[in-house]
Design goal:
Blueprint: E1 4-8, H1 14-22, E2 27-31, H2 38-48, E3 53-57, E4 61-63, H3 68-77, E5 83-85, E6 88-89, H4 96-103, H5 114-117, E7 125-126, E8 133-137, H6 156-166, E9 171-173, E10 179-181, H7 187-207, H8 212-227, H9 235-259
Parallel strand pairs: 1-2, 5-9, 6-10
Antiparallel strand pairs: 3-8, 4-10, 5-8, 7-9
Helix pairs in contact: 4-9, 7-9
Length: about 260
């Protein structure tokens, strides 16, 4: 038994809502203005929920099979872990530049495996969250703070994972709960995303302590982005886009820094 809480900032597909209703799944729709940022929306979703286990998925993702919800919550139901995350996959072979964008770790962990991009321990625990595909038990909110609403340009996911690590709450990486994320098909959107993402990096650095594992995993991810497809036809596109990514991250960082 579960419910669906939709935090809406745009027009929704009524047909999908009717499909859920036909299956006797309670659907609650909450409309908010744009520009309140993800930390606020996530905290509102927590306040509106009636159950002890919360599961998070974005509207531009879809599950791979009917077992996704069970797989993502099973470790919590069995009291093995309080927080569970999984990665996102992308279907390739649509367009050269679109595939290059996906190989460049956008969006999320895309087609490069979570285990390569982020550190995963032998017991399948990690210090990272994929906030478009994770779950947790509400009891952890008695120990850790909620999502940081002061981060106005994202990074609330990194901050939340950092707090969990500080409180020694393990994040379990569930390999069987992978979902599909739609591909990003426009280079302009890729540039805009990195411009905004690195505005958030400045906010994070200003408000939070950047630890050794933040730096280590950043180096790890860059290495795999640049060299995992080195001997394929994608190498030129990936390196060009990586240069654009770096350019827009620097612009976003300094724009945010100088505007404050």
């Amino acid at each position: 038994i579960f419910e669906v809480n939709l935090i809406v900032q745009w027009v929704i597909d009524v047909n999908k809502i009717e499909l859920l209703n036909k299956n006797n799944i309670p659907v609650h729709i909450y409309e908010y203005h744009k520009g309140l940022w993800f930390g606020y929306y996530r905290n509102e979703a927590i306040k509106k929920s009636h159950w002890e286990i919360l599961v998070w998925i974005d509207d531009d993702e879809r599950t791979k099979n009917d077992q996704w919800l069970f797989n993502l919550t099973r470790p919590i139901i069995e009291w093995l872990y309080s927080v569970v995350t999984a990665w996102t996959d992308i279907e390739l072979w649509k367009w050269y530049w679109t595939d290059c964008i996906s190989y460049l770790w956008y969006p999320w962990w895309s087609v490069i495996w979570f285990d390569k991009m982020r550190t995963v321990n032998n017991d399948w625990t990690t210090e990272h969250l994929c906030t478009g595909n994770f779950s947790f038990h509400k009891t952890i909110l008695n120990t850790v703070s909620w999502f940081d609403e002061s981060l106005k340009s994202w990074a609330e996911d990194v901050a939340f994972a950092t707090v969990l690590g500080e409180k020694w709450i393990k994040i379990y990486r569930e390999p069987s709960a992978t979902i599909f994320h739609i591909q990003r098909s426009w280079i302009i959107n890729f540039c805009k995303w990195h411009l905004l993402r690195w505005k958030s990096v400045y906010e994070f650095i200003k408000l939070w302590l950047v630890t050794g594992w933040h730096k280590k995993d950043k180096i790890r991810s860059v290495k795999h982005i640049l060299f995992d497809r080195f001997f394929t036809r994608y190498v030129v596109g990936i390196w060009i886009l990586f240069g654009l990514q770096y350019l827009f991250t620097v612009i976003g960082y300094w724009y945010k820094r100088l505007s404050l």
